[in-house]
Amino acid sequence: MTDAPGRGPYAKSAARRSEIITTATAVFGTHGYRGGSLRQIAKQLDLGLTTVMHHFPTKVSLLAAVLSQEDAADTDFLDRSARDGFIPTVLAIVERNIGRRELVRMFTVVQAEATHADHEAHAWLQERYASVIPDYRDAIEHDRSLGRLATTRDATMLADLVIGTWEGIQVRWLADGTDPVDGMRVALEALLEPIRR
Amino acid sequence: MTDAPGRGPYAKSAARRSEIITTATAVFGTHGYRGGSLRQIAKQLDLGLTTVMHHFPTKVSLLAAVLSQEDAADTDFLDRSARDGFIPTVLAIVERNIGRRELVRMFTVVQAEATHADHEAHAWLQERYASVIPDYRDAIEHDRSLGRLATTRDATMLADLVIGTWEGIQVRWLADGTDPVDGMRVALEALLEPIRR
């Protein structure tokens, strides 16, 4: 983001905020949330710690901003799935994620830490499952009612498995670049049995 | 492990070593490898840092010991799979993992961090994929040749997907206790199409 002259202090503040979030994404993705620090983030940006703390007074407030980037991207999932079908919609997100590797890595590392009940992002992780799984279940049931999918398996179980498989495949891609779209397509077809027309 | 009297200094040293590995597993599973420290591990055990460093002079030498616990458990995979079938053998390990939650958590957290090419465990992660995937591929092909599996999908792709799915399902189980055996059974049946006899 370029900081055009004349955009005023608000625009400048928003640009600074966004740059802190980007750096925090990389730091949490490398050291984990627990291993990362505001000091480290300030240092990488060549900023004073007080400047960072002006925008994010605590590390946990910065974590919330970092994690909400991920969620904002997929708000229209159900509409897209109703239009294009569940499998193409998921594959489009897997493909888009290839271009946001450090965001996916941060998400993977923080999620692993956050499985601990006393982790700062544990409630976020629980809420995420509680919102994504019913959406995926509904999208799968909708596709089935339209005759797009032949599977007779329980839709909540399928939603669980799609999420689990996706996350596991992304770890592998982060580690050695194995194509996640190919793997995800094969897994989705095996689980959901699309009907070709 | 109890430290029976008369077992001598070697047994005592082995017990101490094993207790350090167990504590390091919990610390790395909570803070990640990068966020954990020998000092923290020593403190939790109420030991001096020099005692810990007598057994593990560097944090990375302790990481190697922690990670090798995981590998040691599955050395007879191919024999078991040839005897009992691939699906039952994988499900037995998923089930056994339920009793080693902190080991699985450590493995999940360190693996996520280790996707970074400059992480201390990155080479370990690459070697793990390089040894597990061909074993799983061979086990799947063997089952197919015996008429146990109907799938015609590429066996290397299937091996990749079994590992990815398994790891994703375990994250969910770590986070909220969702039964990993049930999910894994459904995923394996969808991917591998077992032939019932």
TrEMBL record, chains A, B:
<dbReference type="Pfam" id="PF00440">
    <property type="entry name" value="TetR_N"/>
</dbReference>
<dbReference type="InterPro" id="IPR009057">
    <property type="entry name" value="Homeodomain-like_sf"/>
</dbReference>
<keyword id="KW-0804">Transcription</keyword>
<dbReference type="InterPro" id="IPR001647">
    <property type="entry name" value="HTH_TetR"/>
</dbReference>
<dbReference type="InterPro" id="IPR036271">
    <property type="entry name" value="Tet_transcr_reg_TetR-rel_C_sf"/>
</dbReference>
<keyword id="KW-0805">Transcription regulation</keyword>
<feature type="domain" description="HTH tetR-type">
    <location>
        <begin position="14"/>
        <end position="74"/>
    </location>
</feature>
<feature type="DNA-binding region" description="H-T-H motif">
    <location>
        <begin position="37"/>
        <end position="56"/>
    </location>
</feature>
<protein>
    <submittedName>
        <fullName>Putative transcriptional regulator</fullName>
    </submittedName>
</protein>
<dbReference type="InterPro" id="IPR050109">
    <property type="entry name" value="HTH-type_TetR-like_transc_reg"/>
</dbReference>
<dbReference type="GO" id="GO:0003700">
    <property type="term" value="F:DNA-binding transcription factor activity"/>
</dbReference>
<keyword id="KW-0238">DNA-binding</keyword>
<dbReference type="GO" id="GO:0000976">
    <property type="term" value="F:transcription cis-regulatory region binding"/>
</dbReference>
